[in-house]
Specification:
With about 325 residues, this protein is an alpha/beta fold. Helices cover about 30% and strands about 15% of the residues. Its EC number is 4.1.99.22.
């Protein structure tokens, strides 16, 4: 189904939980946040019912997020159920990688096609500080397991932050020379804890690209990396992988946006940077049939805004990213 601006909406990002097994400093406060009561979170059966309604308006691709989706009990059964929906042709997952090594094979067998892994540093001590206790070796094992299992492509999401990890951006880019990894540099977005950070920490995609080309050589544009996201991909000469740039703030991709977001509490959100949400949980629990759920999808698609104004007004939201859906 097309929205009012002739964008074909076919991609649904589903937050299966607000919980996470890390406490990354730009995502949430050290004490964490109050977990949403279990009975307020969509059940796996409710999520599947919502996706079955979504395919009626053209949803073909889903991505499971959190929080950390792999901490949600029953995640493998959900993937199996979604993979049985004929119209769904792509199931992806975004994870911090902590549980990936032990789950990669089962995720692949259940129906996951590809995986994105959040990783902002290659230094063990810094990783532990950024995540407030995480183990980098555990994530490395997860990355290797994803490659070995055939979760393809394996994409690494790195938020580029000045005075934080900008001294490692070249090291991360070099990974693509010897490994079939797709490193994506993401601009810092003002959500949650990061909303209070000094704007001087912001690094634009153009600056990261200039840094890489100045040190490592010319980047060639690549157009055949599988996925439905906003990244623009390039490759270093001789590289096995690619380097992607996600410019949510400096050069937004709103004109190409093809997605909706479903929060863990059952709110359908047309735009990450807009507060408007449509409730699917209450009608579903009140006995609404598929036609009523499809109507809510129609409303969400037709209310999708033309764009955001992050570059002018940084979003004010009292929820962190794990509560909205990553």
């Amino acid at each position: 189904m097309q929205d009012r601006f002739q964008r074909q909406i076919q991609y649904l990002r589903i937050s299966v939980t607000d919980r996470c097994n890390l406490r990354c400093v730009y995502c949430m406060p050290a004490e964490g946040v109050r977990s949403i009561p279990h009975n307020e979170i969509l059940t796996m059966e409710e999520i599947a019912a919502i996706v079955e309604a979504g395919v009626q308006v053209g949803i073909k691709k889903v991505r499971l997020t959190g929080g950390e989706p792999l901490v949600r009990r029953g995640i493998l059964d959900l993937v199996k159920n979604l993979s049985r929906i004929p119209e769904i042709d792509d199931i992806a997952i975004t994870t911090n990688g902590i549980l990936l090594a032990e789950m990669a094979a089962d995720l692949k067998a259940a129906g996951v096609n590809r995986v994105n892994i959040s990783l902002d540093t290659l230094r063990a001590g810094r990783f532990k500080r950024i995540t407030r206790g995480g183990c980098l070796d555990t994530v490395r094992r997860g990355i290797n397991a994803a490659l070995e299992t055939g979760l393809n492509p394996v994409k690494i999401n790195t938020v580029a932050i000045r005075g934080f990890n900008d001294d490692e951006l070249l090291s991360l880019a070099r990974l693509t020379l010897d490994h079939p990894l797709h490193i994506r540099f993401i601009e810092l977005m003002p959500i949650g804890t990061a909303d209070g950070w000094d704007r001087a920490r912001f690094i634009s995609s153009a600056e990261v690209r200039e840094l890489i080309t100045g040190a490592l050589g010319t980047l060639e544009d690549v157009k055949n990396v599988r996925g439905n996201g906003p990244a623009r991909y390039s490759r270093l000469p001789g590289g096995r992988g690619t380097i992607g740039f996600i410019s949510a703030v400096s050069n937004h991709f709103c004109t190409r946006c093809n997605r909706l977001r479903l929060t863990a509490t059952g709110q359908l959100r047309p735009c990450l940077f807009n507060h408007r949400e449509m409730d699917l949980k209450e009608p579903l629990r009140a006995g609404a049939g598929r036609e009523e759920l499809v109507r809510v999808f129609h409303e969400a698609i037709l209310s999708k805004p033309n764009g955001h104004d992050l570059a002018v007004n940084w979003q004010e939201d009292d929820r962190i990213m794990s509560q909205i859906g990553g």
